[in-house]
Design brief:
Number of strands of chain B: 10
Structural class of chain A: mainly alpha
Radius of gyration of chain A: 22 Å
Oligomer: heterodimer
Order of helices and strands of chain A: HHHHHHEEHHHHHHHEEHHHHHH
Distance between the termini of chain A: 29 Å
Structural class of chain B: alpha+beta
Strand order of the largest sheet of chain B: 5-6-4-3-7
Largest sheet of chain A: 2 strands, antiparallel
Radius of gyration of chain B: 26 Å
Number of helices of chain B: 7
Chain lengths: 549, 297
């Protein structure tokens, strides 16, 4: 009972907050005035904030920014021993530095290292911290550009990447981080620049407590869809997630911006009903996943859980199983990938549901920004199928979904599953890939598929048993993350360009209405169908084989 | 013109990275560190440290500790924390979980000829071993389903004529290394063997056997499973109640006195539904040391 009430409280809070935040976001991205501080930033960086970009220029700016982000992170990691506040940690080896730089720039934050024994405070603040803001902002920019394409009228203009990026950071992410950060610090999250402090425990042993700027890291880690832990234990660590109060707040932070983007979308396309319609789709998918994972964790049908009496291995007492399951599904459904328990120790089926939440393409509610554009891709597939069923040219928001547009959508829908399955197959086929598994049998296979699902979808959630800090995994994961992030972004921006160039058609009686029960069912069904068709064979060899034997 | 345009974009990109680093990479975290000095926030910001009877810092209320002696045996006058996978136990420099899945039921046996080889326990055997040890410490029945009386996972490797099906030809108790006597003598009419180090049981079907055990087991589940962080400072009310008589005896105080103290360090569910009720072991043990220091050691 408490379990469901807790989920309902979290969901009610997110729904209540998403309205004002979504309205605010719409104002941020449609406003034409620049604040003084922003003007100063634009002058310093040498960009013209009033210049419009077509999709190619928008993409070029985005890629250039990402390239220098990766280079900046690489430099910080490779020379961190020489930086202040390094806490004595050595420079990172090249392949680990490369994997980590790409991981944080692509908003994946897969970590092939343990935070407390690898990263100095400055590397966290100026490296990971900056990219937590920036990578989230990049996702938001792409979603906003797609919306501008949908509402554009015979134009090539999609906005200005630099302005969108800076506004995301300064007007949205930074103020929210300050508020949420102070709240979390008040609840027990530490915020200091101390190094390691060795103390004598009550029983006379010694213990080394690790200080750090966790309170400034935590909110942006959660809101950005970044999800990388300051500590190895991520949000299971008491300094990252100290109490039964902070846990639901952290879940809300993960869900808030992706859900508010739906409201913003409704506002920007001039139909709040659109926002609510998509929210219902997201709500259905989220409820299905939450219900499934909660059921799996409580039914605990596997031996070790039966012996323990509950699936409590890898969970923290203060959150309990419902608090862990809800956090888990929120982290995989949002592309955040944070963890307040060990997902590797979830039941076979429970872990499978977490994986499935990512395989849906992270649209329930998906990543910061990326959730919305992922969902709109599912919407376009639904519209296309719907159009075929009634025998009309598919249209969405008075824009035709023709051959050119559908090519982009289909490529988007196929790229991610193809890369996940190909990379998993390579890993399973090679000894270097198999050696990293922490468990044997179907569970070991789950670890590998989970890892690539997480990497290619730029989620960063982990079945942490996989020891992936090896040359093989660092390289293949770097490639997987780059493809999984930038190829879909390129396709989305190209699609935005195609839509923007169209002249809106007229709504006739034959046009598929983009709301109502039929539409919700069509979109939900298309999203699930795509994921199932792509992944069912792989899922049945891993989590299903484990959970149903 | 095209080249110059592209160059300009890259220059702008570089400058934006630098400016963002200054704003959100330095100003934001340092500003937050300064803001966190205001009264009310500075305590948690510093890590919720606590001071012991001697005036020195003895830890953080949020970070669990081991309450064991140098040999790793539990000290009876302290409430014990949950099993921990952080380093050698409650090591904040190595937070983390076991990452073992619930079908981890077969141990890697140690080489009897090599004293330094300890093998690798499956999650099931770890649970069984902890439950047995806690049962003995607290004077209750430590038996659990799927655990043998000697505290390993009760798992038979069953060989059948056709692999997964057919009549049983041979049965091995996979987690009981010879010369241990297997927990059951026969299975489907076939004598159960103990497991030989180095033997290949890959073709046997691992079959967990539900042994007789009280339901629910006397030792609660959080006492036999490792936490996600390895630093969990809390235990369930059930585990606190199980330990209370032993601690009261060791401290020479009444169970009623101790129970009221346990209540004081119990956190219920906020709003009645969030999280789980827990007892903070670090604060509880500190209070015990301060109020009932009795009997050295």
């Amino acid at each position: 009972m408490a379990a469901w009430s807790q989920a309902l409280i979290v969901i009610a809070l997110v729904v209540a907050l998403h309205v004002p935040l979504g309205d605010y976001l719409a104002r941020v991205f449609t406003g034409t005035r620049h604040s003084r501080f922003e003007q100063l930033v634009y002058r310093t960086c040498g960009v013209d904030p009033d210049g419009q970009q077509n999709w190619r220029r928008y993409l070029l700016a985005l890629l250039a920014f990402s390239l220098f982000s990766i280079l900046a992170l690489l430099a910080i990691f490779l020379f961190q021993a020489h930086l202040p506040l390094s806490l004595g940690h050595p420079d990172l080896p090249f392949l680990l530095a490369l994997d980590t730089a790409i991981s944080f720039t692509t908003n994946t934050s897969w970590q092939n290292y343990a935070g407390e024994s690898t990263m100095g405070h400055l590397a966290v603040m100026t490296g990971l911290g900056v990219q937590a803001f920036a990578s989230a902002a990049v996702g938001m920019c792409v979603a906003v550009a797609l919306i501008r394409g949908l509402i554009g009228h015979s134009t090539h203009e999609l906005g200005n990447f630099w302005v969108d990026l800076i506004r995301c950071v300064i007007r949205v992410l930074l103020p929210l981080s300050v508020i949420a950060g102070l709240l979390l610090i008040g609840l027990g999250v530490e915020q200091n620049l101390h190094g390691a402090q060795t103390i004598t425990t009550l029983a006379g042993g010694s213990q080394t407590l690790i200080g750090g700027p966790v309170g400034s890291w935590e909110p942006i880690k959660l809101m950005s869809g970044d999800g990388g832990g300051f500590f190895n234990a991520n949000s299971a660590h008491p300094f990252e997630n100290p109490s039964a109060w902070s846990n639901p707040i952290e879940i809300v932070l993960m869900l808030l911006i992706p859900v508010a983007f739906l409201r913003m979308y409704g506002r920007m396309v001039g139909s709040r009903r659109q926002g609510w319609t998509l929210l219902i789709v997201v709500g259905i998918l989220f409820a299905l996943c939450t219900g499934a994972v909660s059921w799996a964790e409580h039914a605990h049908p596997e031996t070790a859980s039966l012996a323990a009496g509950a699936a409590s291995e890898g969970t923290e007492d203060r959150f309990g199983l419902p608090g862990s399951a809800l956090f888990g599904i929120s982290a995989t459904g949002t592309a955040d990938g944070a963890a307040n328990s060990s997902y590797d120790s979830f039941t076979g089926l429970g872990g499978g549901v977490l994986m499935a939440a990512m395989m849906l393409g992270e649209i329930s509610p998906g990543g910061t920004g990326s959730g919305l554009y992922g969902l709109l891709m599912a919407v376009l597939v639904a519209v296309f199928i719907g159009g075929l069923m009634v025998g009309r040219t598919p249209e969405y928001l008075r824009k035709r979904v023709g051959v050119g547009e559908m090519t982009m959508v289909v490529l988007y829908a196929l790229v991610i599953p193809a890369v996940i399955l190909i990379c998993s197959a390579i890993a399973i086929a090679l000894p270097a890939g198999r050696a990293a598994m922490g468990n044997v049998g179907p569970h070991g296979l789950s670890e590998v598929i989970y890892a690539f699902t997480s990497n290619v979808n730029t989620n960063g959630s982990a079945f942490a048993g996989l020891s992936a800090n090896t040359p093989f995994y660092n390289i293949i994961m770097s490639i997987a993350m780059l493809i999984g992030r930038y190829l879909p972004i390129g396709l989305v921006l190209a699609l935005a360009g195609k839509f923007a160039a169209q002249r809106p058609g007229v709504v006739t009686v034959g046009t598929l209405r983009a709301h109502g029960v039929n539409f919700v069912a069509l979109v939900t069904g298309s999203a699930m169908l795509l994921a199932l068709l792509n992944f069912l064979p792989a899922l049945s060899l891993g989590p299903l084989a484990e959970g149903l034997h | 013109m095209r080249v110059r345009g592209r160059l300009a974009v890259h220059l702008a990109a570089l400058r934006v990275v630098v400016v963002l680093t200054l704003i959100v990479g330095l100003a934001y975290p340092l500003g937050m560190t300064v803001l966190a000095r205001i009264p009310g926030l500075s305590g948690p910001a510093d890590g919720s440290l606590i001071t012991g009877p001697n005036g020195r810092t003895v830890g953080s209320v949020l970070i669990g500790q081991s309450f064991t002696d140098a040999k790793g045996n539990p000290i009876p006058k302290y409430f014990q924390t949950r099993p921990s996978m952080a380093g050698n136990g409650y090591d904040p420099t190595a937070s983390g979980a076991s990452n073992l899945g619930p079908d981890s039921i077969v141990d890697t046996l140690p080489n009897p000829a090599d004293k330094s080889d300890t093998g690798k326990l499956s999650l099931l055997s770890q649970i069984c071993q902890r439950s047995k040890a806690i049962g003995e410490l607290e004077g209750v029945n430590g038996a659990r389903p799927y655990c043998t009386a000697d505290g390993v996972g009760a798992v038979l490797g069953v060989f059948r004529t056709d692999g997964l099906t057919g009549p049983t030809t041979r049965v091995v108790s996979l987690n009981q290394e010879c010369p241990v006597t297997p927990f059951m003598a026969t299975y489907q009419g076939v004598r159960v063997e103990c497991a030989q180090y180095g033997a290949d049981y890959g073709h046997a079907v691992p079959t967990p056997i539900a042994e007789n055990a009280p339901t629910p087991p006397a030792v609660p589940s959080d006492a036999v499973t490792a936490s996600g962080s390895g630093l969990d400072p809390d235990i369930s009310l059930a585990y606190a109640n199980l330990q209370a008589p032993r601690v009261a005896r060791a401290r020479g105080i009444s169970l009623a006195t101790l129970s009221s103290l346990v209540d004081r360090y119990t956190t219920g569910r906020p709003l009645g539904v969030l999280g789980e009720p827990v007892v903070n072991v670090v604060r509880l043990n500190l209070a015990l040391d301060q109020q009932y220091p009795k009997q050295g050691a």
